[in-house]
Every structure is written in structure tokens, then in C-alpha cells.
Amino acid sequence: MSDEQDTGDVGLQDLSSNSNEGPELAKKADGVVRSSADLEPVYDVPVRVQAVLGKSTLEISQLLKLAPGAVIELDRKVGEAIDIYVNNRLVARGEVVLVEDHLGVTMTEIIKMDGAAG
């Protein structure tokens, strides 16, 4: 796959200027200096965040026997880190916490991206 991406002739605006204006400047491998302001157009794009406590596999016959009060055993132990996904991509691990009367997640590990498309 090429480094160039097809824009599909939708008239995309080029946001990769060589301007040194704006905070947090970063020089990319292509030599273009970019700032956090370059990402501003996507700040309001919603993403799906999931905190997965664990997984289990059931046969349909077992699934049909489930009733209120049934317990499904997961593949994780109590206190073990949970997986945090953003748009179905594993991005972090964390611990379940209580925030007032809601559940929350404290991130304990950020998963480094390997650059491979998935």
C-alpha cells in the first residue's frame, strides 16, 4: 500500500502547513511541522469507547438457559486490568473505579501503536 491516500475527489483541505504558529509543534518524518491546532477540525468527532471487563464463550443451549441471577464466568480475575477500546481498537488497559454512583476506568497502561493498519 502506498503512503499516498486517495481523497476520492471530495475536495479535502490540506491542513499540513509549514507554519510555526500554534502550540506543541512536532516535526514529522516527512519534514512537515504540525501543531495540535491541525487536529482542531476533528475535536468534535464522536468516537466509541468501550471498557471490556472480560469475555466468555457459551453454547446456544447454555445461553438459552440463562435467567435473572445467572452468573457468566469471564476470562479475567478480580483486580486484573481491563481492556479499553476506542473504535474497536485496543488503546489502553485500566482498572475499574467508582466515581460517585457510576463506574469509571483509570488508565494504567497506554498501548503503543505499531503503525500497522488493522
UniProtKB/TrEMBL annotation:
One of its GO terms (cellular component) is plasma membrane. It is a peripheral membrane protein. It comes from the Bacteria. Its main location: membrane. InterPro entries: FliN (IPR012826), FliN-like_C (IPR001543), FliN/MopA/SpaO (IPR051469), FliN_T3SS_HrcQb (IPR001172), SpoA-like_sf (IPR036429). Pfam families: FliMN_C (PF01052). Keywords: Bacterial flagellum, Cell membrane, Cell projection, Chemotaxis, Cilium, Flagellar rotation, Flagellum, Membrane. Belongs to the FliN/MopA/SpaO family. PANTHER family: FLAGELLAR MOTOR SWITCH PROTEIN FLIN, PTHR43484. This is Flagellar motor switch protein FliN. It comes from Kordiimonas sediminis.
